[in-house]
Amino acid sequence: xxxxxxxxxxxxxxxxxxxxxxxxxxxxxxxxxxxxxxxxxxxxxxxxxxxxxxxxxxxxxxxxxxxxxxxxxxxxxxxxxxxxxxxxxx
Length: 90
Hints:
Low-confidence stretches: none
Largest sheet: none
Number of helices: 3
Distance between the termini: 74 Å
Helix content: 55-70%
Mean pLDDT: 79
Strand content: under 5%
Order of helices and strands: HHH
Structural class: mainly alpha
Radius of gyration: 23 Å
Shape: extended
């Protein structure tokens, strides 16, 4: 490695060492938390395999609805579960 590269790496290491706090940030997860406006946090994952065309249709629909593909999928699953629950009660 050249001396210039070593100097740059040394500067990066020193700046990271100066920024790091031993033990981490005690306020992390309490004071600094994302609020997505939901009553319940989203903690579970489900993986779905689909054709590329289906994924592109979802992306296009999400763009039209000004939301994300996961938002569309959550809404569709919720509607499906409500419909299934309604047919079981009937």
